[in-house]
């Protein structure tokens, strides 16, 4: 059974930021929802409540950057780029301010529906010059995201998991690298964020079906090490399957597609994720199944790539975690 | 389609339903029922001119998002009746009040009580944060501050088409922190959109706690007036005050009614949870039991048997 870590960001951020006077913690009325309520209470001199006013907050952070501070902005990811996109561009990205954009509730990790679900943020961020993009897939990555982000000389977009988070890895994020989780030679599976756990759930069933899977987990989406990916692609016989908690346009599926096309790689690619659709509100497990982001979707994607069915059923997949929608580690049911 | 109950009875019914739901689910948007009960009861039970519902009393399951491949898509606005020229329209701008809004639909006979059982269930259209396909909703408002602008645009469009129906927006005071709210008011004033009406639940609360501790907003009545709205401030638990406020003359200006409310109104024990009232999840079985007993007494009902 996988170890579950409660609120890893809360302690990790406090450990990293407290006492570092160049770091300021900004919040937009979602302080406990972003697990920084303890930091606010214990380090009020480093905390700024900005209210529900994201456009101002983004440009304000740019100003703090100009004054030599490294602001860590906290809100739900979706509220940090959709409304204040212009401010993100003009005040932060263009002048390369060292603003750390900590976006919570990536993709379908919230039942809050369309207005709360950041499903196209990676696509947007990838197209912004000067932006670095990191995504967390487990508790260890959440625990190391602050230091990783703060090592970047420029703005950083981070997809942060909160609440009860599984521990899948035992080494911190090393910016620019990728994790090789298995080293097979039939198919390359590339995942990020919460989809990595799903692909891991499918692995033993796929092995039993006689498939040798090479599995990469991406925590650094931009900048991206194309050469390393191409080496992995050349190590497998059949092709690549990507799975992401994001629309398939512009995310890691697109990243892999572009890398393959640029290099003239003639292997098949199956991109899994939200297929040109908005999502709606519901539990994470329901949404991941409904929109094809889970272990079952990974199996079906591999069957598509191989052109054959392996008879793998739900029961063959490693047990899914069952999350309590009303868990005490979340501020509200969101 | 109205006046089977008094507005006071509807407000009480809303609170009883939200209370029962929150007890059974170990939490909910209880405080919003306290503050907004009278406002939503007044709008639906007497002030709004709405036609009969056009959607089934028991809500249909989620049927997909807008897309060219989903031609049967429709919003949840049919619970407010048809979008005919003579009828009023209503947006619930803070979609986090959805639980309270759904309870209101039930109390005024526009949705079956079974609808509330579907709240926040997987595959349901009765979403926790009201979506535009949720009962009584016509547009997405879960990103706060966009409701009044959409209302202003709809109201202006209806004015251009000569429609007599009004456009109402139920708002929350936290929304005034968003710059867009002020942009909406200045545009509504500039374009003389006087068929736009808003009633705002001024409960001084937001997700992080008391608004004064998160971001002070100052004298919003004066600010609204300076931006060009007609603005009147009332006791948000006084239904007669609402009846009078809406008579305020506002030629060429939107009318904004500031309903000053108490976030523990009729559930006094909630004050124990101040200043974290946005979403009340019971911290222990003991607290849940005490709240059950106390609120049931305040609302004149038996405690909820939530054990099963």
TrEMBL record, chain A:
- Cited CDD domains: TPP_PYR_DXS_TK_like
- What are the required cofactors? thiamine diphosphate
> InterPro entries from the entry?
PDH/Transketolase, THDP-binding, Transketo_C/PFOR_II, Transketolase-like_Pyr-bd, Transketolase_C
Which Pfam families would you find in this protein's record? Transket_pyr, Transketolase_C
What keywords tag this UniProt record?
Answer: Thiamine pyrophosphate
Domain of life, per the record?
A: Bacteria
Q: Which residue numbers delimit the Transketolase-like pyrimidine-binding domain?
A: 3-167
Keyword match Nucleus: no
Q: Which family does it belong to?
A: Belongs to the transketolase family.
Identification of the protein by name: Transketolase
What organism is listed for this UniProt entry?
Cognatishimia maritima
From TrEMBL, chain B:
**Where does the record locate the signal sequence feature?**
none
Protein keywords: Thiamine pyrophosphate
Q: Does the keyword Ribosomal protein apply?
A: no
Q: Looking at the keywords, is Metal-binding present? A: no
Required cofactor names: thiamine diphosphate
Superkingdom as given in the UniProt entry: Bacteria
| Domain Transketolase N-terminal, first and last residues per copy | 84-261
InterPro entries the record matches: THDP-binding, Transketolase_N
What Gene3D superfamilies does the record tag this protein with? Answer: 3.40.50.970
Q: Which family does it belong to?
A: Belongs to the transketolase family.
**Name this protein carries in UniProt:** Transketolase
Q: Which organism is it from?
A: Cognatishimia maritima
């Amino acid at each position: 059974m996988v170890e579950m870590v409660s609120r890893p960001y809360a302690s990790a951020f406090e450990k990293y930021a407290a006492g570092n006077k160049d770091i300021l913690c900004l919040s937009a009325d979602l302080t406990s929802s972003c697990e920084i309520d303890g930091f606010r209470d214990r380090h009020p001199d480093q905390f700024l409540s900005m209210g529900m006013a994201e456009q101002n907050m983004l440009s304000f952070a740019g100003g703090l950057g100009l004054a030599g501070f490294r602001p860590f902005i906290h809100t739900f990811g979706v509220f940090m780029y959709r409304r204040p996109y212009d401010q993100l561009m003009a005040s932060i990205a263009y002048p390369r301010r060292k603003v750390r954009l900590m976006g919570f509730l990536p993709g379908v990790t919230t039942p809050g529906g369309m207005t709360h679900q950041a499903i196209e943020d990676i696509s947007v961020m990838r197209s912004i010059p000067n932006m670095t993009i990191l995504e967390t897939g487990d508790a260890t990555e959440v625990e190391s995201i602050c230091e990783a982000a703060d090592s970047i000389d420029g703005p950083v977009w981070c997809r942060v998991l909160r609440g009860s988070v599984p521990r899948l890895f035992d080494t911190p994020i090393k910016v620019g690298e990728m994790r090789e989780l298995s080293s097979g030679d039939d198919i390359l599976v590339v995942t990020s964020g919460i989809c990595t756990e799903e692909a891991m759930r499918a692995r033993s069933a796929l092995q039993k079906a006689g498939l040798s899977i090479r599995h990469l987990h991406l925590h650094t989406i931009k900048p991206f090490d194309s050469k390393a990916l191409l080496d992995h692609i050349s190590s497998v016989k059949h092709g690549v399957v990507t799975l992401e908690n994001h629309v398939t346009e512009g995310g890691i599926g697109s990243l892999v597609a572009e890398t393959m096309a640029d290099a003239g790689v003639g292997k098949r690619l199956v991109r899994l994720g939200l297929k040109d659709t908005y999502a709606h509100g519901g539990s994470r497990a329901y949404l991941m199944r409904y929109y094809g982001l889970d272990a079952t979707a990974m199996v079906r994607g591999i069957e598509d790539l191989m052109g054959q069915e392996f008879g793998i059923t739900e029961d063959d997949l490693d047990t899914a975690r069952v999350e309590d929608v009303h868990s005490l580690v979340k501020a509200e049911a969101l | 389609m109205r006046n089977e109950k008094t507005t006071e009875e509807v407000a009480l019914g809303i609170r009883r339903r939200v209370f029962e739901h929150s007890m059974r689910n170990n939490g909910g948007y209880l405080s919003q029922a306290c503050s907004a009960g009278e406002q939503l009861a007044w709008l639906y039970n007497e002030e709004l001119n709405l036609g009969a519902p056009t959607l089934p009393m028991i809500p249909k399951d989620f049927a997909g998002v807008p897309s060219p491949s989903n031609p049967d898509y429709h919003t949840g606005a049919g619970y407010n009746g048809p979008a005919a020229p003579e009828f009023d329209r209503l947006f619930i701008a803070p979609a986090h009040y959805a639980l309270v809004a759904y309870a209101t639909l039930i109390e005024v006979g526009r949705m079956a009580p079974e609808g509330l059982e579907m709240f926040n269930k997987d595959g349901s259209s009765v979403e926790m944060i009201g979506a535009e396909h949720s009962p009584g909703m016509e547009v997405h408002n879960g990103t706060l501050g966009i409701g009044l602008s959409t209302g202003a645009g709809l109201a202006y469009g209806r004015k251009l088409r000569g429609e007599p129906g009004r456009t109402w927006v139920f708002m929350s005071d936290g929304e005034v922190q968003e710059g867009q709210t002020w942009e909406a008011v200045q545009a509504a004033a500039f374009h003389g959109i006087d068929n736009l009406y808003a009633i705002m639940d001024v409960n001084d609360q937001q997700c992080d706690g008391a608004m004064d501790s998160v971001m002070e907003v100052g004298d919003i009545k004066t600010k609204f007036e300076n931006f060009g709205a007609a603005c009147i401030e009332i006791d948000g638990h006084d239904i007669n005050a609402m009846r009078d406020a809406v008579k305020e003359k506002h030629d060429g200006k939107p009318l904004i009614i500031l309903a000053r409310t108490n976030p523990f109104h009729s559930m006094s024990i909630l004050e124990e949870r101040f200043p974290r009232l946005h979403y009340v999840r019971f911290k222990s079985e003991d607290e849940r039991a005490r709240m059950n007993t106390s609120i049931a007494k305040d609302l004149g009902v038996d405690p909820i048997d939530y054990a099963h």
